[in-house]
Amino acid sequence: MHRLRKSVRKRILIAGTCIAVQVLVLFVCQMAVRQLTERKYKMMLEEKDAVLETAGRTVYLTRREIRAGESFTEENIERRYLLSEQNPEALAVEVIGATACADLPEGVIINTALVCTREVSSTERKCVFNNIGNAGCFAAYTVVDVRLRYANGENYCVLKKKRLQETTEKQDACCLFLTEEEQLLMSAAQYDVEMYEGAELYLVGFTQERLQEDAISTYLPSVQVISQLREWNEEYQKSFDTWCDRRRSLERRLSEHRKQRLDGMW
User: Which of 123, 130, 101, 152 is nearest to 201 (CA)?
Assistant: First the structure.
Protein backbone atom coordinates (compact mmCIF):
# COMPACT_ATOMS: atom_id res chain seq x y z
CA MET A 1 0.00 0.00 0.00
CA HIS A 2 2.86 2.32 0.82
CA ARG A 3 4.55 1.46 -2.44
CA LEU A 4 1.36 2.17 -4.34
CA ARG A 5 1.01 5.58 -2.71
CA LYS A 6 4.61 6.36 -3.50
CA SER A 7 4.14 5.36 -7.13
CA VAL A 8 1.03 7.57 -7.41
CA ARG A 9 2.86 10.52 -5.89
CA LYS A 10 5.73 10.00 -8.29
CA ARG A 11 3.39 9.93 -11.25
CA ILE A 12 1.60 13.03 -10.03
CA LEU A 13 4.95 14.78 -9.58
CA ILE A 14 6.09 13.80 -13.05
CA ALA A 15 2.77 14.91 -14.57
CA GLY A 16 2.91 18.19 -12.68
CA THR A 17 6.47 18.73 -13.79
CA CYS A 18 5.52 18.08 -17.44
CA ILE A 19 2.60 20.44 -17.18
CA ALA A 20 4.78 23.12 -15.61
CA VAL A 21 7.39 22.67 -18.33
CA GLN A 22 4.74 22.89 -21.03
CA VAL A 23 3.25 26.01 -19.46
CA LEU A 24 6.73 27.54 -19.20
CA VAL A 25 7.55 26.65 -22.82
CA LEU A 26 4.20 28.06 -23.95
CA PHE A 27 4.81 31.23 -21.98
CA VAL A 28 8.32 31.58 -23.39
CA CYS A 29 7.02 31.00 -26.93
CA GLN A 30 4.26 33.56 -26.46
CA MET A 31 6.75 36.10 -25.19
CA ALA A 32 9.11 35.37 -28.08
CA VAL A 33 6.31 35.66 -30.64
CA ARG A 34 5.08 38.84 -29.00
CA GLN A 35 8.55 40.39 -29.10
CA LEU A 36 9.03 39.37 -32.72
CA THR A 37 5.62 40.77 -33.61
CA GLU A 38 6.28 44.01 -31.75
CA ARG A 39 9.67 44.33 -33.41
CA LYS A 40 8.15 43.65 -36.84
CA TYR A 41 5.34 46.18 -36.41
CA LYS A 42 7.70 48.67 -34.85
CA MET A 43 9.89 48.49 -37.93
CA MET A 44 6.83 48.85 -40.15
CA LEU A 45 5.61 51.83 -38.15
CA GLU A 46 9.04 53.42 -38.30
CA GLU A 47 9.08 52.92 -42.08
CA LYS A 48 5.60 54.41 -42.36
CA ASP A 49 6.58 57.36 -40.19
CA ALA A 50 9.65 57.92 -42.37
CA VAL A 51 7.47 57.81 -45.49
CA LEU A 52 4.98 60.23 -43.95
CA GLU A 53 7.77 62.61 -42.97
CA THR A 54 9.32 62.57 -46.45
CA ALA A 55 5.92 62.67 -48.23
CA GLY A 56 4.80 65.90 -46.61
CA ARG A 57 4.52 68.64 -49.24
CA THR A 58 3.41 72.24 -49.27
CA VAL A 59 1.78 72.56 -52.69
CA TYR A 60 -0.55 74.76 -54.71
CA LEU A 61 -3.94 73.30 -55.65
CA THR A 62 -6.44 74.63 -58.16
CA ARG A 63 -9.67 75.86 -56.57
CA ARG A 64 -11.57 75.64 -59.86
CA GLU A 65 -10.98 74.82 -63.50
CA ILE A 66 -8.21 76.99 -64.98
CA ARG A 67 -7.86 77.53 -68.72
CA ALA A 68 -4.53 77.54 -70.54
CA GLY A 69 -3.10 81.07 -70.51
CA GLU A 70 -5.05 82.13 -67.44
CA SER A 71 -3.01 83.75 -64.68
CA PHE A 72 -2.70 82.07 -61.28
CA THR A 73 -4.22 84.21 -58.52
CA GLU A 74 -5.29 83.76 -54.90
CA GLU A 75 -8.84 83.33 -56.18
CA ASN A 76 -8.22 80.28 -58.39
CA ILE A 77 -5.47 78.48 -56.40
CA GLU A 78 -4.74 77.71 -52.75
CA ARG A 79 -1.65 76.72 -50.76
CA ARG A 80 -2.03 73.47 -48.79
CA TYR A 81 0.09 70.93 -46.88
CA LEU A 82 -0.59 67.33 -47.90
CA LEU A 83 1.04 63.95 -48.57
CA SER A 84 2.37 63.30 -52.04
CA GLU A 85 4.95 61.03 -53.65
CA GLN A 86 5.79 63.58 -56.35
CA ASN A 87 9.36 64.80 -56.57
CA PRO A 88 9.57 68.03 -54.52
CA GLU A 89 11.68 69.62 -57.27
CA ALA A 90 8.82 69.10 -59.73
CA LEU A 91 6.32 71.03 -57.60
CA ALA A 92 5.78 74.72 -58.28
CA VAL A 93 7.02 76.93 -55.46
CA GLU A 94 5.78 80.37 -56.53
CA VAL A 95 2.95 80.57 -59.05
CA ILE A 96 1.10 83.80 -58.27
CA GLY A 97 1.28 85.97 -61.38
CA ALA A 98 2.42 83.15 -63.66
CA THR A 99 0.13 81.57 -66.28
CA ALA A 100 -1.15 78.04 -66.88
CA CYS A 101 0.42 76.14 -69.78
CA ALA A 102 -2.59 73.82 -70.15
CA ASP A 103 -6.20 73.43 -69.08
CA LEU A 104 -6.30 72.35 -65.40
CA PRO A 105 -9.32 70.80 -63.68
CA GLU A 106 -10.25 71.57 -60.10
CA GLY A 107 -8.12 70.00 -57.34
CA VAL A 108 -4.93 69.46 -59.36
CA ILE A 109 -1.48 69.85 -57.78
CA ILE A 110 0.42 72.48 -59.75
CA ASN A 111 3.89 71.42 -60.85
CA THR A 112 6.57 73.36 -62.70
CA ALA A 113 5.64 71.82 -66.07
CA LEU A 114 2.21 73.45 -65.85
CA VAL A 115 3.51 76.96 -65.09
CA CYS A 116 4.67 79.48 -67.67
CA THR A 117 6.24 82.81 -66.88
CA ARG A 118 4.95 85.19 -69.50
CA GLU A 119 7.46 87.86 -70.49
CA VAL A 120 5.77 91.23 -70.29
CA SER A 121 6.98 94.02 -72.54
CA SER A 122 7.39 97.47 -71.03
CA THR A 123 4.97 98.83 -73.66
CA GLU A 124 2.36 96.09 -73.28
CA ARG A 125 -1.15 97.25 -72.45
CA LYS A 126 -4.59 95.72 -72.08
CA CYS A 127 -6.67 96.63 -75.14
CA VAL A 128 -10.36 96.02 -75.81
CA PHE A 129 -11.79 95.99 -79.35
CA ASN A 130 -15.45 95.98 -80.34
CA ASN A 131 -15.09 95.87 -84.12
CA ILE A 132 -13.65 92.36 -84.57
CA GLY A 133 -16.31 90.35 -86.32
CA ASN A 134 -16.48 86.93 -84.67
CA ALA A 135 -14.85 87.63 -81.28
CA GLY A 136 -17.89 86.25 -79.44
CA CYS A 137 -17.28 82.79 -80.91
CA PHE A 138 -14.07 82.28 -78.90
CA ALA A 139 -13.75 81.62 -75.17
CA ALA A 140 -11.35 83.51 -72.92
CA TYR A 141 -7.68 82.39 -73.08
CA THR A 142 -8.04 80.93 -76.56
CA VAL A 143 -4.99 81.47 -78.78
CA VAL A 144 -5.97 83.24 -81.99
CA ASP A 145 -4.66 85.18 -84.97
CA VAL A 146 -6.23 88.53 -85.83
CA ARG A 147 -6.68 88.71 -89.59
CA LEU A 148 -7.85 91.37 -92.05
CA ARG A 149 -9.80 90.46 -95.18
CA TYR A 150 -10.27 93.03 -97.94
CA ALA A 151 -13.16 93.17 -100.37
CA ASN A 152 -10.92 92.08 -103.26
CA GLY A 153 -10.18 88.80 -101.46
CA GLU A 154 -6.71 89.61 -100.17
CA ASN A 155 -6.18 88.36 -96.64
CA TYR A 156 -3.45 89.25 -94.12
CA CYS A 157 -2.48 88.28 -90.57
CA VAL A 158 -2.38 91.43 -88.43
CA LEU A 159 -1.46 89.78 -85.08
CA LYS A 160 -0.08 86.27 -84.58
CA LYS A 161 -0.74 83.87 -81.71
CA LYS A 162 -2.41 86.26 -79.30
CA ARG A 163 -4.28 84.92 -76.28
CA LEU A 164 -7.71 86.32 -75.59
CA GLN A 165 -8.21 87.70 -72.08
CA GLU A 166 -11.31 87.92 -69.93
CA THR A 167 -13.39 91.06 -70.27
CA THR A 168 -16.42 92.29 -68.34
CA GLU A 169 -17.63 94.34 -71.28
CA LYS A 170 -19.88 93.24 -74.12
CA GLN A 171 -19.90 89.55 -74.93
CA ASP A 172 -18.52 90.16 -78.42
CA ALA A 173 -15.69 92.40 -77.17
CA CYS A 174 -12.13 91.23 -77.80
CA CYS A 175 -9.56 91.80 -75.04
CA LEU A 176 -5.84 91.42 -75.81
CA PHE A 177 -2.50 92.34 -74.27
CA LEU A 178 -0.63 94.27 -76.97
CA THR A 179 2.76 95.95 -77.25
CA GLU A 180 3.18 99.42 -78.75
CA GLU A 181 4.07 97.88 -82.11
CA GLU A 182 1.00 95.61 -82.07
CA GLN A 183 -1.24 98.52 -81.11
CA LEU A 184 0.01 100.43 -84.15
CA LEU A 185 -0.75 97.44 -86.38
CA MET A 186 -4.27 97.18 -84.99
CA SER A 187 -4.77 100.93 -85.41
CA ALA A 188 -3.72 100.67 -89.06
CA ALA A 189 -6.00 97.66 -89.59
CA GLN A 190 -8.97 99.50 -88.07
CA TYR A 191 -8.24 102.44 -90.34
CA ASP A 192 -8.32 100.13 -93.36
CA VAL A 193 -11.66 98.69 -92.24
CA GLU A 194 -13.12 102.21 -92.17
CA MET A 195 -11.33 103.32 -95.33
CA TYR A 196 -12.01 100.36 -97.63
CA GLU A 197 -15.59 99.20 -97.91
CA GLY A 198 -15.96 95.46 -97.40
CA ALA A 199 -12.80 95.09 -95.31
CA GLU A 200 -13.25 93.06 -92.14
CA LEU A 201 -11.25 92.17 -89.04
CA TYR A 202 -11.86 88.69 -87.65
CA LEU A 203 -10.27 85.96 -85.51
CA VAL A 204 -9.06 82.47 -86.38
CA GLY A 205 -8.25 79.87 -83.71
CA PHE A 206 -5.57 77.19 -83.51
CA THR A 207 -6.31 73.47 -83.46
CA GLN A 208 -2.94 72.52 -81.88
CA GLU A 209 -1.19 75.65 -80.64
CA ARG A 210 2.15 74.05 -79.75
CA LEU A 211 2.41 72.04 -82.97
CA GLN A 212 1.35 74.67 -85.48
CA GLU A 213 3.61 77.30 -87.01
CA ASP A 214 2.92 81.03 -87.28
CA ALA A 215 0.81 82.47 -90.05
CA ILE A 216 2.67 83.21 -93.28
CA SER A 217 0.95 86.28 -94.71
CA THR A 218 1.97 89.54 -93.00
CA TYR A 219 -0.22 92.61 -92.83
CA LEU A 220 0.85 95.68 -94.81
CA PRO A 221 -0.01 98.79 -92.75
CA SER A 222 -0.17 102.31 -94.17
CA VAL A 223 3.06 104.16 -94.97
CA GLN A 224 2.53 106.46 -91.98
CA VAL A 225 2.36 103.49 -89.61
CA ILE A 226 5.36 101.83 -91.28
CA SER A 227 7.32 105.01 -90.51
CA GLN A 228 6.38 104.64 -86.84
CA LEU A 229 7.05 100.90 -86.75
CA ARG A 230 10.63 101.21 -87.90
CA GLU A 231 11.39 102.85 -84.55
CA TRP A 232 10.79 99.49 -82.80
CA ASN A 233 11.31 96.85 -85.48
CA GLU A 234 14.59 96.35 -87.33
CA GLU A 235 12.74 94.55 -90.13
CA TYR A 236 10.98 97.80 -91.03
CA GLN A 237 14.21 99.76 -90.67
CA LYS A 238 16.14 97.55 -93.09
CA SER A 239 13.33 97.18 -95.62
CA PHE A 240 11.46 100.46 -95.24
CA ASP A 241 11.29 101.21 -98.97
CA THR A 242 10.23 97.66 -99.77
CA TRP A 243 7.43 97.79 -97.21
CA CYS A 244 6.24 101.14 -98.53
CA ASP A 245 6.24 99.85 -102.12
CA ARG A 246 4.25 96.78 -101.08
CA ARG A 247 1.71 98.96 -99.29
CA ARG A 248 1.31 101.27 -102.26
CA SER A 249 0.78 98.26 -104.52
CA LEU A 250 -1.93 97.03 -102.15
CA GLU A 251 -3.64 100.42 -102.19
CA ARG A 252 -3.58 100.46 -106.01
CA ARG A 253 -5.18 97.02 -106.14
CA LEU A 254 -7.87 98.06 -103.68
CA SER A 255 -8.55 101.26 -105.66
CA GLU A 256 -8.86 99.28 -108.88
CA HIS A 257 -11.28 96.88 -107.19
CA ARG A 258 -13.35 99.80 -105.91
CA LYS A 259 -13.41 101.38 -109.35
CA GLN A 260 -14.51 98.11 -110.93
CA ARG A 261 -17.36 97.83 -108.42
CA LEU A 262 -18.46 101.39 -109.16
CA ASP A 263 -18.35 100.64 -112.87
CA GLY A 264 -20.68 97.70 -112.34
CA MET A 265 -18.10 94.99 -113.03
CA TRP A 266 -18.78 93.37 -109.62
Answer: 130
